[in-house]
Specification:
6-stranded mixed beta sheet; alpha/beta; 417 residues; 40% helix; 2 domains; UDP-N-acetylmuramoyl-L-alanine:D-glutamate ligase; Protein-Tyrosine Phosphatase, Chain A
Length: 417
Amino acid sequence: MSGNSPALDAALKRFEGLYPDVIELSLGRIERALERLGRPQDRLPPVIHVAGTNGKGSTCAFMRAMAEAAGLSVHVFTSPHLVRFNERIRLAGKLVEDAALIGWLDRTYAAIEGGEITHFEATTAAALLAFSEVPADLLILEVGLGGKYDATNVIGAPALSVITPVDYDHAAFLGTDLAGIAGEKAGIIKAGRPALTAIQQDVAGAVIAARAAEVGAPLYRLQPYFIDAMPEDIALTGPHQRANAALAAMAMQLFGNSTRISQAAIFEGARKAVWPARMQRLKDGPVTALAGGLPVWLDGGHNPHAARAIAAYLSALGGKTALVTAMLASKDSAGFFVPFAPLGVDVFTCPNAPGHQASPPAELAQAASKAGLKVTACASLEDALRAAGASGADRVLICGSLYLAGEVLGANGEAPE
């Protein structure tokens, strides 16, 4: 179920009929739309462009909080949204309002003139139009998928390109070769413009370095001591978030030339960042009430890399966890469950949010069982939560899909603001 207003839903739905029959990774469609809109990508605040497999959203959230702590006005573009489409476009610190967003969507639709374009490309064009017309000091622009041919990769000279950890995901579009995936992510690195990379696997790191050398881009690498220097009480939960905060801190120092954004602002931002559905402890509400009084956590992680980070946190936490899980059919469900096997978690599979091609609970249960986990297939999220609450666990973690996370947040009255 959409959390959008009917008017916004109608404005967004018009773009669905413009999909090409075969969606090829290309910048041509959005470039044509932007030309008709007067090239808003040339009238943006300084841009920090962010690609990677995991940690993009969290890193963007930390950067935004750090920059705002320094007194900067910040635009942010992220995807997907959890409850309302407006979450994707933050203008000078506030989520875009319906009336203004519909106006930018109307202008974009008129500019396309019935030509082929994907929904993400069209809404990215509308977002860039919005960012070009509202003043700000910084635009944090998150890649949707890949990098080289992503609709956001129309920025010719970003202030900084940032690449978070690269791993396997979106195999249908990016393949299963890690070097190839890293090459797609590294496509956001631009000639002569600085780039920053997280600590990477050797194969991915080599590809990123080669791309930077090829285009003459100064390349900076996150170092472990930056992670160690982060305050202990950062806002987001889990040891992997310390690395995301450190990457954001280094990005802010590079963006601010180590003077505009102080260490005090960086630490304040690390302590104040907000990014929903990343090891988020849910409040008391209709969803959590189903778990019989157990603490309920929520994480949108949906690939093996994310699962390893979640499992590491649960291991450090101790006790027993019950996983309530739904996943898209396109995801590596078998690989997702493997990191949880040593923890002895109980798994309760359920349908994903409506409107998405999901793995049926029974098939997802087979993947969890092959990983050595005790698993129960459930007919609904509600049934899965009740069963998890009665399993003898110390806590319940809902995970495996951002779409499921959005459904949970909306049902529990915790839509992002």
